[in-house]
Design brief:
4-stranded antiparallel sheet
């Protein structure tokens, strides 16, 4: 776990540094949606068509809308998530010692006033903004060990709050499974909460032989989850444990995985786990669930930010941010082949979010000014 902690701390320092860079005098601008859907080549020489030969067919990403946002908002955006089912973007904006939750409506381009406030901001811990399982809600946390807030983005209101003990690990994000929210409380307790009203559904003990770093869901019903655990600290390897949520029994496992802080999942179809190889490179391995079969042929290496990844709902596409080029790279998880790259129309991408079906990618972009990448807009891409 010591290696995993050190790895995460390295990336947190990068994230904190990035946050500082975002505060450097961005230019004043107004928000507006693009009047028409525009292909990359039709914009200008810097806005390119991202066409690559995929595993079976050519995949094209097209810039469909651009939202230029006010400079005071742009420089303080910390997290955001695309909620394509309701046509909205949930934004977490830092305001002094608190966070504000705002909603950007994709159709109109209107940015709402804050729909909620979250306190408990910590410099050494990143905030959490996570989409709910219903496609219309988000879960917000200022830092681990702080309360968890569930907001209905469509109705623009707070639904309920979970207590601080539901978020006590720095790597351990809550997991939506069916109609439940599952959290892990050290050393061995699974906590279950109703995703409709936040009521506790009871705790389950899991028999573990090593510390747990994070949890990911399996399937679309609240029956099983995956616990990622440290297996061998000296060799820096980890394992995945398949656990029955109702009984706490371990019903499957896979050993020898990279013991990194990276873990992401596509609605129970697959998850990726990565190892930091240097300051620029990561090694990513895809694991299929629920069988926990490893696809070593899809081991991918790229200059990516390990905390900036997304997997489509069917587990067939893995996207990651290349910090060297500012592009979003997407692979076919079955063949390991490169599908396409999304190249922002200006500067580079700072963060991105992807719809569950992988058909829409939202990039938060900015232009280079005086040696710094200054955020200014959201760019919405459709993938076909």
């Amino acid at each position: 776990m010591a290696h995993s902690l050190a790895a995460l701390q390295g990336f947190l320092s990068v994230a904190i540094g990035l946050g500082a860079a975002l505060s450097l005098n961005p230019s004043t601008s107004t928000m507006h949606p693009a009047s028409d859907c525009v292909e990359h080549q039709a914009v200008d020489q810097n806005s390119k068509s991202a066409v690559e030969e995929g595993a079976q067919k050519k995949i094209v990403s097209t810039l469909s809308k651009t939202f230029v946002i006010p400079s005071d908002v742009a420089r303080s955006v910390r997290e955001f998530v695309l909620l394509s089912e309701i046509g909205a973007i949930a934004i977490l904006q830092q305001d002094s010692d608190r966070y504000l939750i705002r909603v950007l409506e994709i159709e109109s381009g209107k940015l709402s006033d804050p729909i909620g406030t979250v306190t408990g901001l910590r410099i050494d811990a990143p905030p959490l903004l996570q989409a709910g399982g219903d496609g219309r809600s988000v879960l917000v946390r200022a830092a681990y060990g702080e309360p968890l807030y569930v907001y209905d983005v469509k109705e623009k209101k707070l639904r309920f709050t979970l207590p601080p003990e539901a978020a006590t690990l720095p790597f351990n994000n809550p997991t939506f499974i069916g109609n439940e929210i599952v959290t892990f409380r050290p050393p061995d307790q699974l906590q279950r909460w109703s995703s409709s009203d936040g009521k506790s559904l009871g705790d389950i003990r899991v028999r573990l032989d090593s510390p747990v770093s994070t949890i990911v869901p399996v399937g679309n019903t609240a029956t099983e989850i995956i616990l990622l655990a440290v297996a061998d600290i000296e060799k820096d390897t980890g394992k995945a444990l398949r656990v029955n949520v109702a009984t706490g029994d371990i019903v499957g496992r896979v050993e020898g995985l990279p013991n990194g802080p990276l873990a992401t999942v596509g609605s129970g179809s697959a998850f990726a786990i990565g190892r930091i190889k240097s300051n620029e490179w990561n090694e990513i391995e895809l694991v299929r669930v629920p069988e926990l079969t490893r696809h070593t042929s899809t081991r991918l290496s790229s200059r990516i930010a390990s905390m900036q990844q997304a997997i489509s709902k069917d587990g067939r596409r893995l996207s990651a941010l290349d910090w060297m080029t500012g592009e979003i790279v997407t692979w076919d998880t079955t063949s390991g082949g490169l599908l396409f790259r999304v190249s922002p129309s200006i500067g580079g991408c700072l963060k991105f979010s992807m719809s569950p079906d992988g058909a829409t990618i939202l990039a938060f972009t900015g232009a280079m000014e005086d040696g710094s990448l200054r955020p200014s807009q959201f760019e919405l891409y459709t993938v076909k």
